[in-house]
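Q: Structure for this?
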Amino acid sequence: MKRVVIIGGVAAGMSAAARLRRLDEEVSIVVLERDRYVSYANCGLPYHIGGAIPDREQLLVVTPEHLRATLNLDVRTEHEVIAIDREAQTVEVHDHQRGSRYIEAYDILVLAQGAAPLRPPVPGIDHPRVFTLRSMPDMDAIKAIVDGGAERAIVVGGSYIGVEVAEALRERQLDVHLIELQDQVMPLLDIEMATDLRYHMELHGVTLHLGTAASSCADVDGRIAVTLRTGETLVADFVVLAAGVRPITSLAQQIGLALGKTGGIKVDATMRTSDPHIYAAGDMVEVIDTVTGEPTLVALAGPANRQGRIVADQICGRDSTYTTTQGTAVVKIFAMTGGATGASEKTLRRLGRAYRKVYLHPAGHASYYPGTAPMHIKLLFAPEDGRVLGAQIVGYDGVDKRLDVFATAIRAGMTVFDLERLELAYAPPYGSAKDPVNMAGFLAANLLRGDVAFWYPDEYEQQSAETVFLDVRGPQEYAQWHIPGAVNIPLTELRSRVEELRPVDAKPMRIYCMVGFRSYLAYRILRQHGFDDVATLAGGGRTFTSFYRTTLATGAPGIPFVSHAEEDLAAQILLDQ
Amino acid sequence: MKRVVIIGGVAAGMSAAARLRRLDEEVSIVVLERDRYVSYANCGLPYHIGGAIPDREQLLVVTPEHLRATLNLDVRTEHEVIAIDREAQTVEVHDHQRGSRYIEAYDILVLAQGAAPLRPPVPGIDHPRVFTLRSMPDMDAIKAIVDGGAERAIVVGGSYIGVEVAEALRERQLDVHLIELQDQVMPLLDIEMATDLRYHMELHGVTLHLGTAASSCADVDGRIAVTLRTGETLVADFVVLAAGVRPITSLAQQIGLALGKTGGIKVDATMRTSDPHIYAAGDMVEVIDTVTGEPTLVALAGPANRQGRIVADQICGRDSTYTTTQGTAVVKIFAMTGGATGASEKTLRRLGRAYRKVYLHPAGHASYYPGTAPMHIKLLFAPEDGRVLGAQIVGYDGVDKRLDVFATAIRAGMTVFDLERLELAYAPPYGSAKDPVNMAGFLAANLLRGDVAFWYPDEYEQQSAETVFLDVRGPQEYAQWHIPGAVNIPLTELRSRVEELRPVDAKPMRIYCMVGFRSYLAYRILRQHGFDDVATLAGGGRTFTSFYRTTLATGAPGIPFVSHAEEDLAAQILLDQ
């Protein structure tokens, strides 16, 4: 009888175990889990702290007893593997329940230990009130301190877990401070795409400390003081560390398995490690990025589950293989949703890849039907053939849906011309006859076909003194906000007043409106009237201010924008819609 | 100056006009619209009647004045084209505002007249209280009679418009009767997929008269009496006819343009009719079905808009072409959502095409996070290569999202093996680590790889007397409902009790549970224990009862199912979740 030992009983490990049993009734399957729980809903942990999931038992998807009864799995919790002997094909296990050790033999070993929270090398970080949130006991500890009357918390890290924890603690009425090294929340997004999320978090009472980090922690009468690099000191009842994760590879390193350059375990397409008797799956393995082809680490539940299935297939002699990971992810932040799939602009830049981009602000569904608000979409695509490289969306309704359509398009290798032709489900409560994804395709295809030229917010400061900024909105909109020095000719008057612009028709003309539609029409008119150096602002004033609201703190000069208070009001109006 | 005349100013016509102007500042564009309004939100009409869109002006997306100012379009409302002279390249126009007629010359003519409601040849159907709902005046008339205190309405037709109108009138507290010729609501869905929608409509107070039709209408003191083929007579304040639409082709026929076998105007991939100076777009043209390759008529806003764009491109000498229409559509019915993309099973059967199918009932998002309920998914795919042929979904949350992912997959020519690998956006409020679309792919791929064999609800009555039905649910579930004569061995006891089944191991064994997961595990166990003729019920008891609840009325014998009242309760519990 073949003996399969799986180290780790959550996403990848349990997927492998369950599928393995479905494929093979005979194989012996032992799952060794260091913690007290297996197959729990680790993505749900923040929501139990916050109260959205009141019943803790809901998170315990299945128990070892249930797994034995339905799948004949030998699941051993609080059993930690402390050594692997590749020659003998055995693992040494520490049974924390009994305090004993034993040797377990395997024919096939599966590593599915996941990733562990990064602990920044900060003095005092081992203070007992510094928590992480990866497991049920982690959650229980944080919830206990909140239930005990904690009033103030510090969250370190502004990515998925960090913002989910910050939201949860705000739901519990705590005073929440979030510290993020980057100058934005959700660093996986490009900076201008994170702006709305940032202000939305502030609107909901999270105090953000961006572009800084904790430099030390210290005890203050049982509470904890965190000093930032800025010199500021925050005192709180506890700290949640959510500064990212790294693969748990100590065992793998001990036995000399090959690691990739990212530090994750190197596996082939069959999920096999450098030892033919050892597979690995989940957060601990290095994968290939779908878009860039580069090795990368992606700690996401979906890929982990699929990799676990493939391990089981392979153990049973099947030919299924893992391809690539595109990093599709989404987060709920109070009333907003933000997410991404494929490559970001910062990644493409870092790798020196060619790309084009468009921005748009379509409503989640027909704007005349209640309950919608504009979302902010950024689409990245290849200049040569229009292949979709990445998409980012933040907004209120329908964000996750469009992320999934873009994710599917990327997986299918679709181009922006394909996006134009997608036939998506339309009725007023769900979308628009021209869906936001179609609209993104139209804009991108127009660019590649040469029907439009864009200028981008980040090019503003590089514009020459010669540049004419043309604002084609109405005079009231112009009065509220405009780019300094911009000429105002409303679109509806442009055809009759085009001769006013003749004296400057040789100068670069940079057109804009609020979201980009009117300025696109103006672009078309001016081009056909013989203006050659014309471009329309991608995403309009909304994307422009998103960019400069975020970078202003770092010193971009001369950009006026409506005050933070006014923006909060605008966000509130969106919420009320 | 090139003169383009467009007949029809709503979806296709207005898309053509707007894009044409963006591409060409010089061309003369005249839009002739028979009605009083152009470019209004015709999909929103039921929601103004129902009150979801209180402000009528919201539906008037743009006015002729706005179109002139922004796009320099010459839009003439209440101008009806009454004749076309192909030789002279002119149209004769009746100006209903002035009561005069004139001739307008064209270089290019665009037909975008759409489709008109079918009026069944029923005596009395021309009663003044029989309305249709295609235009703003139609809507105004219905809303006026509702506002005037109407108490009872009859809706003829149970497809998209019919159910939207029925919902709207229930929102206004009317007693609503809906008559549908088919034995189901939403005839575009396969019958078992319409069951939940049917009971949901009844739960919300719509009285359904299915499998029948109006045979006559008569005046009763200013109200209207509709007699059904069953002999029953319903008296109501008014009737809304929503029995489908047909292309408006009278003008096209007068001038001898080629029609397709569906009765729609025949166009090539450039949307050109048999007259090289005449294009056509929108509901009036025959298109090719993406999946079946057959000519078809599809009256949907998305394809109409895209076709309009292509007409404009063609007029400007560009090479964009229209490909196919897959008929992606969605409808909101009270708290439920239902929709489809690609081919239905009834279509594939009618055409004699080979297909396979799976059913599943995943939750819209992680079941431990509040606000979700199981949806019912049916996936149809090609036996030889797994290409996705069609998908239907009904449920509560996340239905439109999965429809769009399936729609994108069909457009990309993806297989069920590709669905397994899709990397979709997961966080507990939005989905599951194994998304419903992935799950559909897993089931379908398991079938094609031979890892599972399904039996289907519609095969129940063809089972031989030899067949052993094995119910692998718990005894309580078995007591509540089971297939007559089924043996009950809970999955958790199956391994230890498998020898009890040895005496019948040569007989056909048909396993089932509630949604199909436990019986799939049981299938895997029994197959590996040497049982050869084993199959698991696709979709489990939920799909089974969906099928037989619907067909029972037509006489399927011996199928027990929980009473309607209990089902209403079950639906209510779903809603409360």
